[in-house]
């Protein structure tokens, strides 16, 4: 008995776990489908139409009969515990109690099927079906259903047993002859003991007994009291030794209705990954005399349908008849079965289950027997480790990642790509391709494609021309319909070779610097900048650069005094101007290469406004009328004299808080203003007296943004986060704006005091100061409403 219980309870528990599952690969069918099989009617009911267990009633001319547990066993109905395709299966034997039988060739069924909707309302579905016999009856047919054993035998079956069964047969004949009651009786043989009972008594014990014009029918549950479990070639078999007899006057009619069914579960070989099931080729008491046993044909199939040999071999099924046993072997995941998934302890598992169908046609003397056994064969839960394959083709600049393989009850619902999470639909909308790839064995996989240059993909230049793209993927998979989530992580990296940053060449001209670079295949990866600003046609036009860009190369000409220059070693004769072109990663903005060119330019006139508050001015006095001696010029503070002079130009270097510099301000700018003035004595003809008056005045100004300026009045310190720009204006003329020039490399902190001490020095005195200067990137708009800060 323990084996019997193990088999039935195990199958029921496994199937109940799977009962809600829907195989989405199954073709769409109607809510209720009925079809005739070899020996039964199959009714399939879509489990989605009901929220409660179905109620089923059989109908015949005498009334309506509910089909439930014990009654179903007695009368030949099976509500299958195996439901893998989303349908609840009801099987009704052609000899079930309420089937209209026409000469054992035509069978008519009528049922009511009651379902319950989401609101609790019950609906009645009427099913009527007539089946004609597709396959002639054998002399004896034994069917091992899930919940009962059924035997049908021709009334005229030949009965001259020999061998081991002869004693049982003789005992039955003796009991029949001794019986004083006519009519059909049953005799059970159990452990050598005989028990005889009427058909009515048998019905009371749950046996199904019936007869038609041509055949006798007997049906028994597996756990009936008169059955026993034996070992046949080390395989557990339930046997019930039963004979029906009929006595009328001096005539006795006897029919052997014994049954035998295996109850051994399937097994699994984790090395070969195959499910296997063993069945005894010969089962007592189905064979009277083994010496007369002839096996005519052994067949196998799936879900009640036999397959031809070519078909099951093509699926990888194996059948091996080894003397007294038949071995059936099915590869994991083979067609005809179902793979199902389950998450246990945060581990993704799946198992495989197949509803095999075994049929053996054999002869025992002159009696042909057809023996059928269906069996749900399954594997245990097997930990599975989804795998990823990097199918990226570097030349396509797209990550292509394969994730597989999954049975039909697993779906991809979301992906996390680096730092962002997308549902599958959101991923499509964002431009990422996610494709489901079906396989012939019923599994499927997913392929996701993400462009290298997508915003979510980090990029890193490793040097030596190597460019690295990386993608971390966190897949969210869902096991349906239980809604069990499972996560799988994968990382892929792509290395692109020969991805060197652009290599500029640069040459000096008399008034500019020219940069040139040839275009590269991966030019889109890099961005050329001037400082922090990308080099675009708009920037070039705004700053006065000359930019030429064609299919072969890019040329940038930068005239002197344009924004971006750094100025060094400024004298009245010349100065050095340096212009730098940067190459940075267009995505990360990391600087990868710098091309700087330093050129010597002639000095004419300029003004430089440093971030440390130092003004450097080269001014021409050639426009002064009458002429002005450069050596006679000073700033507003007469002690502040030129650092250098020649015949008509002067060089002043002074701090914004020295030399009488005035400070004005509005809401946008702080303006530092000083004047270059000349003083000389003369005697007017009308007034012969000595006076001193200015005959030349040149105004110089530096403008700084208010928000970037930090000016401390206590110690006269000055610091600007952004550079200023300046203008030079001769009294009575329009101002000249000087390039919005500023300093980039800070002068050390005592610059202002140094200048204050040495402004009275002779022009020929050499002051060794070589600050670097560069152009200011801001545009100045004068606001006429100024407020003095003195």
TrEMBL record:
Protein's name according to its UniProt entry: ZP domain-containing protein
Coiled-coil positions: none
Gene3D superfamilies in alphabetical order: Zona pellucida, ZP-N domain (2.60.40.3210)
Signal sequence range: 1-27
InterPro entries: Ig-like_ZP, ZP-N, ZP_dom
Source organism, top-level taxon: Eukaryota
Keyword Hydrolase: no
């Amino acid at each position: 008995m323990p084996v019997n219980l193990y088999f039935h309870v195990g199958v029921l528990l496994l199937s109940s776990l799977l009962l809600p599952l829907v195989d989405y690969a199954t073709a769409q069918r109607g809510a209720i489908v009925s079809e005739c099989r070899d020996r039964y009617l199959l009714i399939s009911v879509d489990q989605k139409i009901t929220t409660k267990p179905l109620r089923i009633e059989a109908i015949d001319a005498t009334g309506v009969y509910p089909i439930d547990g014990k009654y179903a066993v007695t009368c030949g109905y099976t509500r299958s515990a195996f439901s893998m395709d989303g349908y609840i299966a009801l099987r009704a034997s052609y000899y079930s109690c309420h089937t209209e039988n026409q000469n054992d060739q035509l069978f008519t069924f009528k049922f009511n099927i009651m379902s319950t909707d989401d609101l609790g309302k019950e609906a009645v579905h009427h099913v009527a079906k007539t089946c004609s016999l597709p396959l002639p009856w054998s002399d004896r047919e034994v069917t091992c259903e899930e919940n009962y054993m059924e035997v049908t035998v021709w009334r005229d079956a030949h009965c001259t047993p020999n061998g081991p069964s002869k004693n049982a047969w003789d005992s039955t004949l003796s009991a029949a002859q001794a019986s004083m009651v006519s009519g059909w009786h049953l005799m059970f043989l159990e452990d050598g003991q005989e028990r005889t009972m009427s058909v009515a008594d048998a019905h009371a014990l749950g046996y199904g007994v019936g007869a038609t014009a041509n055949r006798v029918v007997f049906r028994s549950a597996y756990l009936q009291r008169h059955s026993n479990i034996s070992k046949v070639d080390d395989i557990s078999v339930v046997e019930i030794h039963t004979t029906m007899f009929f006595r009328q006057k001096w005539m006795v009619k006897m029919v052997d209705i014994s049954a035998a069914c295996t109850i051994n579960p399937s097994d699994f070989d984790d090395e070969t990954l195959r499910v296997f099931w063993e069945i005894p080729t010969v089962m007592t008491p189905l064979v009277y005399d083994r010496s007369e046993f002839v096996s005519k044909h052994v067949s196998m199939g799936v879900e009640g349908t036999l397959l031809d040999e070519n078909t099951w071999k093509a699926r990888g099924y194996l059948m091996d008849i080894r003397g007294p046993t038949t071995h059936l072997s099915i590869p994991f995941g083979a067609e005809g079965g179902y793979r199902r998934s389950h998450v246990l302890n945060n581990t993704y598992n799946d198992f495989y289950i197949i509803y095999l169908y075994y049929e053996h046609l054999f002869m025992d003397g002159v009696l042909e027997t057809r023996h059928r056994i269906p069996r749900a064969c399954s594997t245990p839960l097997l930990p599975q480790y989804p795998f990823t394959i990097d199918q990226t083709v570097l030349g396509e600049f797209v990550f292509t990642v394969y994730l597989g393989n999954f049975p039909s009850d697993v779906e991809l619902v979301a992906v996390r790509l680096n730092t962002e999470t997308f549902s599958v639909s959101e991923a499509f909308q964002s431009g990422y391709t996610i494709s489901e790839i079906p396989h012939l064995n019923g599994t499927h996989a997913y392929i996701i494609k993400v462009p290298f240059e997508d915003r979510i993909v980090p990029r890193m230049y490793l040097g030596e021309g190597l460019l690295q793209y990386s993608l971390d993927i966190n897949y969210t998979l869902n096991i349906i319909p239980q809604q069990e989530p499972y996560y799988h992580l994968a990382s892929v990296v792509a290395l692109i070779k020969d991805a060197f940053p652009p290599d500029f060449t640069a040459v000096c001209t008399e008034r500019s610097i020219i940069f040139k670079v040839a275009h590269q295949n991966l030019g889109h990866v890099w961005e050329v900048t001037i400082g922090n600003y990308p080099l675009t046609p708009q920037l070039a036009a705004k700053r006065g650069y000359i930019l030429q860009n064609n299919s072969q190369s890019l040329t940038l000409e930068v005239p002197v005094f344009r924004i971006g220059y750094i100025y060094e070693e400024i004298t009245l004769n010349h100065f050095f101007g340096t212009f730098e072109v940067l190459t940075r990663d267009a995505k990360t903005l990391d600087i990868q290469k710098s091309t700087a060119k330093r050129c010597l330019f002639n000095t004419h006139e300029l003004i430089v406004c440093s971030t440390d508050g130092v003004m450097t001015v080269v001014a021409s006095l050639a426009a002064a009328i009458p002429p002005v001696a450069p050596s006679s010029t000073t700033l507003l503070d007469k002690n502040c004299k030129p650092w250098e002079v020649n015949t008509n130009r002067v060089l002043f270097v002074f701090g914004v808080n020295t030399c009488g510099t005035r400070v004005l301000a509005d809401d946008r700018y702080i303006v530092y203003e000083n004047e270059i003035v000349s003083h000389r004595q003369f005697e007017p003809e009308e007034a012969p007296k000595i006076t001193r008056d200015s005959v030349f005045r040149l105004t110089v100004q530096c403008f700084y943004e208010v928000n970037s300026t930090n000016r401390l009045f206590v110690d006269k310190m000055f610091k600007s986060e952004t550079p200023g720009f300046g203008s030079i204006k001769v009294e009575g003329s329009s101002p000249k704006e000087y390039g919005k020039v500023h300093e980039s490399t800070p002068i050390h902190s005592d610059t202002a005091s140094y200048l204050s001490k040495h402004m009275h020095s002779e022009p020929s005195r050499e002051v060794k100061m070589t600050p670097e200067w560069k152009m200011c990137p801001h545009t100045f708009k004068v606001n006429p409403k100024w407020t003095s800060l003195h």
